[in-house]
Write a structure and sequence with these properties.
The complex is a heterodimer of chains A (301) and B (345). Chain A is an all-alpha fold. Chain A contains 12 helices and no strands. Chain B has a two-stranded antiparallel ribbon with strand order 1-2. In chain B, strands 3-4 form a two-stranded antiparallel ribbon. In chain B, helix 5 packs parallel to helix 10 and helix 12 packs antiparallel against helix 15. The longest helix of chain B has 39 residues. The chains are: A mainly alpha (301), B mainly alpha (345).
Chain lengths: 301, 345
């Protein structure tokens, strides 16, 4: 009896062990597959970016060097990138991009915040139509604007001016701002506003003293997304800007090297690195918020 | 956090004032007045920056371009053109000085319309299919819990954060004849000047740049699906493949449709990549010429004709969007709202 019991318990133990083994294997195989997939995704996303940085620090003579780590390291490419003698106005272009992006972002936030508040908070007729219109506006093709603007700006002498670059950018940054911010504001704890109003605040006061501080992170995230959207714009700027007002995207696309008719790959990669690395760092710092904003507003890639 | 955010969207219905029968009209009126004040400035700005150019483009598209007729060398005055600018693109007809519509002389941009149309849809179809499949795969991986998931989610944002113009230059270098891709593959492909290679160069670079965006939108949809559904599925003996096609796909469909709609509309207006990566041409000179590139090429040859082309492009994009919303049932506004709720949980 006791022997039988012992034996049966031993069998049970063995079985449990075997089960555990199977379970371990079952959970491990998919886990390995997941990790391998994750490694492939990370490599696919980062390899070209890494290659840009490595090339940016490589001597021109070793442009086509294929060793995967930094070799023949030099800072010359960065000097070429900023060399106004060669016609590369990267420094000026960066200032232009910051100025244009900053202005567009501020304008979009000024007009967008109030519209987003209304769409997120108030009940009124035609709300879904207006929301749909604003979304449609953000999907609007840039080429549909460029021809009439090209003619208009030529006629009034605005070609190559800052306002000629700022105004068209508002057309896609403002809808994006309204849309992203509406999605964020919908999630705000609005009962606090009600409480403030019961305590005697007016609607404007309740918004300014209670909601605005709470909404600050959302507004900030939206501002980053708006700035990036403006910073990345190329189509309209490439047609309406001049050498003095061109943003970085246009400057990099038309880069010149020290030798004529030779594509200055290393200098372009250096310029690309300068333009991209701050943006990437900014995005990584505010990663969570940006992902939330992206999926809410469906920003142009 | 989650308790508060969950309660927030329900507020309008539970608002005691609004549910009170008699006062309701008054408050809605007040809301309506406030909404008018708050929204009007944004609508006015959009009206100026979008409405004005669109209306003037449509008016311009019915005007003749003044200038020298290339075929006859005679000066053509402007004036009402009827649909001749549209016929120029859609039917490749040119109006000569005598006012007779005939086939355009060779070398005319009008002859490239259907080619550019085909190229644009070719790019759209391939990039969106690749990006959807790859994006879905990435989203599924990111939805699992494993060590280093944060790193994947960070890495995926890098291609998104790089400006398209820089992406184009970066891939231009990767695709160079002596570049890294040819040396890795051991091939000697002229990636940016061969007819078909240049088309696929655009598709590869675009897929790299935009798949993360797709993956993030799909991931947001996946996160809304509760794990209990999968447990129930497993209990009923559903295999992994069955779980994907019977549970994941139908449940993520609304989010997926919206993501695909966004990408399709974005891909149809593709300009930056082909303009920089293959200098607008590629191949025989127009292997990668998309509708947007054609519009920009035409601007300096005649505003009114370019306006007709940009209006056609706009209508094409509008029709595609309409088909998506009407026949595939992509509900952008609702899906986005529910996704946002899921994202913050």
């Amino acid at each position: 009896m006791t022997i039988a019991a012992e034996r049966s318990s031993a069998i049970a133990r063995d079985r449990a062990k075997a089960d555990a083994k199977v379970r371990v294997r079952k959970t491990n195989a998919p886990m390995i597959r997941t990790v391998v997939s994750a490694v492939i995704i990370v490599l696919w996303c980062l390899a070209p970016f890494y290659w840009m940085i490595v090339t940016a620090f490589r001597q021109v003579g070793f442009t086509y060097d294929t060793s995967p780590w930094p070799t023949h390291v030099t800072l010359d490419n960065f000097r070429t990138a900023f060399s106004t003698n060669l016609g590369n106005h990267l420094g000026q272009a960066m200032l232009n991009s910051v100025f244009i992006g900053g202005t567009v972002t501020v304008v979009a936030l000024v007009f967008g915040t109030s519209a987003a508040y209304a769409l997120a908070r108030l009940e009124f007729k035609g709300k879904s139509i207006i929301a749909g219109m604003i979304l449609a506006a953000s999907m609007f093709p840039g080429v549909a604007l460029i021809t009439p603007l090209f003619q208009l700006f030529t006629n009034i002498g605005w070609m190559g001016t800052y306002q000629a670059l700022i105004i068209p950018s508002i057309s896609f940054v403002l809808p994006l701002t309204v849309y992203t911010l509406t999605a964020f504001l919908r999630e705000m704890p609005w009962d606090l506003e009600e409480a403030a109003r019961i305590d005697g605040c007016t609607r404007v006061q309740a918004f300014r003293r209670v909601i605005l501080p709470l909404a600050a992170p959302a507004v900030f995230t939206t501002a980053i997304l708006a700035f990036i959207a403006s910073w990345n714009e190329y189509l309209i700027s490439s047609q309406l800007s001049s050498d003095a007002t061109q943003p970085v995207t246009v400057a990099i696309a038309g880069f010149a090297g020290s030798q004529p008719h030779v594509e200055p790959y290393t200098a372009v990669m250096a310029a690309g690195t300068i333009v991209t690395v701050p943006l990437v760092i900014l995005v990584l710092i505010f990663q969570r918020k940006i992902v939330a904003g992206l999926t809410a507003g469906g920003v142009k890639g | 956090m989650s308790a508060v955010t969950e309660a927030a969207p329900k507020l309008p219905t539970s608002n005691p004032v609004r549910s009170g029968g008699r006062k309701r009209g008054g408050l809605n009126e007040a809301h309506g007045r406030w909404a008018t004040y708050l929204i009007t400035p944004a609508i006015v700005v959009l009206g100026i920056v979008i409405g004005y150019p669109v209306v003037s483009a449509i008016i311009m598209s019915f005007q003749k371009d003044a200038g020298l007729d290339k075929a006859t060398g005679l000066f053509v005055a402007g004036g009402f053109a009827g649909f001749s600018n549209y016929a120029h693109w859609l039917l490749q007809q040119c109006v000569s000085a005598t006012g007779v519509a005939a086939a355009c002389p060779p070398g005319n941009l009008g002859a490239q319309f259907w080619n550019a149309f085909g190229t644009t849809f070719f790019f759209t179809a391939f990039t969106v299919v690749f990006e959807t499949i790859l994006g879905f795969w990435m989203a599924i991986i990111m939805n699992r819990s494993f060590r280093g998931r944060g790193l994947v989610r960070a890495a995926i944002l890098v291609p998104w954060a790089i400006p398209t113009a820089v992406t184009a230059k970066l891939w231009f270098f990767i695709f160079a004849f002596n570049g890294i891709l040819n040396s890795l593959l051991g091939t000697k492909i002229l990636w940016t000047s061969d007819e078909w290679a240049s088309k696929f160069a655009i598709i590869i670079a675009d897929t790299w740049k935009t798949t993360p965006f797709m993956a993030l939108l799909i991931l947001a949809g996946l996160q809304l699906i509760s794990q209990e559904i999968y447990e129930a599925g497993r209990m009923d003996g559903a295999s992994t493949v069955q779980q994907f096609f019977r549970l994941t796909l139908p449940l993520v469909k609304p989010a997926l449709l919206v993501a695909v709609l966004f990408r399709v509309l974005d891909a149809l207006r593709i300009y930056d990549l082909p303009a920089i990566l293959t200098q607008g041409g590629g191949g025989s000179g127009n292997a990668t010429t998309t509708l947007s590139i054609l519009v920009v090429d035409q601007i300096r040859q005649g505003f009114n004709s370019a306006s007709a082309l940009s209006t056609i492009t706009f209508l094409i994009i509008f029709i595609v969007a309409f088909i998506f919303v009407r026949f595939l049932g992509a509900n952008v506004v609702q899906t986005q709202a529910s996704q946002q709720k899921g994202e913050l949980k």
